[in-house]
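COMPLEX REQUEST
Ligand: NAP
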Amino acid sequence: MKILVTGAKGMLGQDLCPILEDEGIDVIETNRNNLDITQYENVVSVLTELKPDYVIHCAAYTNVNGAEEEKNTAFLVNETGTENIAKAANN
Ligand SMILES: NC(=O)c1ccc[n+]([C@@H]2O[C@H](COP(=O)([O-])OP(=O)(O)OC[C@H]3O[C@@H](n4cnc5c(N)ncnc54)[C@H](OP(=O)(O)O)[C@@H]3O)[C@@H](O)[C@H]2O)c1
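STATUS: Structure written out below.
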């Protein structure tokens, strides 16, 4: 089984990936540099190329205070980015 993890360098991703690997799962660790979830074409291209069985979506904008000042960025990552992952995974 092949699982693609977004935000693999984040707190959750760093905890999760080794656990999946210990289970013998083929883990594709992605981060902002090789999979920017805010870019739909990038998301589609990566998922189409790598063909994971599942996607575990750990990428997020998590700076709670920063989100007050960077509302657009928080929305772009957490809403649009998540929508991009869901849509592309459903293709
Ligand atoms: N940690 C917890 O205890 C906990 C508990 C419950 C739920 N959660 C949820 O789990 C999720 C992840 O939390 P976390 O604590 O792991 O947060 P985190 O440490 O801030 O990690 C989030 C990751 O998302 C990446 N990211 C941000 N924008 C991106 C983009 N446009 N494209 C691709 N990657 C992007 C970040 O990369 P950069 O560093 O480059 O920005 C970072 O590596 C959140 O939804 C959070 O609410 C976490």
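REMARKS: DSSP finds four helices and three strands in the chain. The pocket of NAP is lined by residues 6-7, 9-13, 31-32, 35-38, 58-62, 77, 81 (CB under 6 Å).
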